Every structure is written in C-alpha cells, then in structure tokens.
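step 4 of 6: structure.
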Amino acid sequence: MADSRSRPMSPHLGIWKWGPHMLVSILHRVTGGALTVAGLAILVWWLMAIAQSGEAYGKFSAASTHWAGTVVLIGLTWAFFQHLLSGVRHLMMDSGLGFEIGANKRLAIVTVIGSLLLTAALWAWILGRAA
Amino acid sequence: MSLGTSATPLGRVRGLGPSGEGGEHWLRERVTSVALVLLGSWLLASLLFLPALDQATFAEWLRMPSGAVPMALFVVIAFAHALDGMKVVVDDYVHDDGSNFALNTLLLFAAVGGAALALFALGKIAFGGQA
C-alpha cells in the first residue's frame, strides 16, 4: 500500500455536484450504523428490562420517556424508516430498476420525504396515545 | 506461481483477482434485508396494535408463540444483517489487514453476544414463569 500514495485517485466525494441520490446513499450508511450501534443496544436493553424485575423496566421506562431519551428514540425511528425505504430502493436498483437520472433522483427524494412522514405519523400516534 | 508465457490469458490472471469470495456475503445481506422488511413491519404493526405500552403488556405479548417466535427471528436476522452491513463499512475504510481483521472480529463478538443476550431475555420471558 506504500506506493499507492503517489498514484492517481479516482474522483471522490467533493468533486461531484451534490444530488438526492448521493444524500440517500450516505444516509443509508449512517442510518445503518446508528441502527446497529444504538438501535440494537436499545432493543437488547428493552428485552432484558421486560425479562427482569419491575425495577429494571422502570429504569428503561424512565430513560425512554425522558425528553432526551425520546429524542433518541424518534431519531432511531427515522433511521429505521430511512434505512428501510432506501434499502428497498437498493433492492430495486439491484434488480436493474431506477437507473435513469430522473427516476433515480425522484426515488431518492421519495425515500427522504417518506421517512420523515412515517416518523411524524408514528410519533404523533404514540405521543397522542400517551397524552 | 509462475506459469510463464505459455499459459493462456485466463490461466495467467486466475487467482490474481479480488478475494475470489464475497458473493454469498452480498446475497445474504439482500436476503436478510427482505426478511427484515417483513419482520420490521410485523414489529411495527404489533407495537401499534398492543393495548398498552408497558412491561406487563410486552411480557404477555412475548410469552405467546405469535410474539416470541417472530421477535426471536427479528433479533437473529437483525444482528446478522447489521454484522454484514458493518463489515462492508469496515472493509471500505479500514485497509490495514491487521486492523481490519481485529475490527471485524470485534464486531462479530459484539453481534453474537448481543443476540445471545436478547435470546436469553426472550427465553426468560417465555419460559420464566414470573409475570
């Protein structure tokens, strides 16, 4: 790898004009990482808390209803929907669909708007139910 | 391995390409993603239709086969998919062989440990007897 420094590099981030497809590509990675690190940790914590005493669940419940905990959960919900929708977009592209510039951009924008709408709808329902 | 100039063009490049593996990893990432679309939708729908969001309701739901079995599948497949996804990210950014191997091994241990913890919790809820 030592001699690779002097070799030409292919054009990378920063040289291209930003577009929705680039945003969705990086969002897919970032949301996947967040769901892995924070999402799965919280899933395990939640299941362990249900399995243990009421006290352990009380701690989970207190953390998840604290405003900061709720912000994290809303963020992870958005990450889940964004990763789900951009993942379906990836599956479509894996099968050869949506490579035309117009369709590709439109599909990327749909995943971003869709994830925001689904997150808003879900949390309106949850918070409305708690109130 | 020197085959000299008498080797066919194919014989000369054989074994010099990329790793020669990875197709299964790529495909497994897609197959688990399709499974997670189904299981994720199930999880979301279940949470929406539960009568309440507290420990007693969750425990009762996860004691039934209709709750425990899909949740166990969700845990195993979510961790497998997360591990496959994180491997792609690590392989993209960590080029030093030693660090790459160390990081991927660490991720493997974390994923197997997390999944085991979640499955233990599910087993305790389903078979533990305690309400």
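step 5 of 6: annotate
 - Chain B is about 75% helix and 0% strand.
 - The first helix of chain B runs from residue 9 to 13.
step 6 of 6: archive
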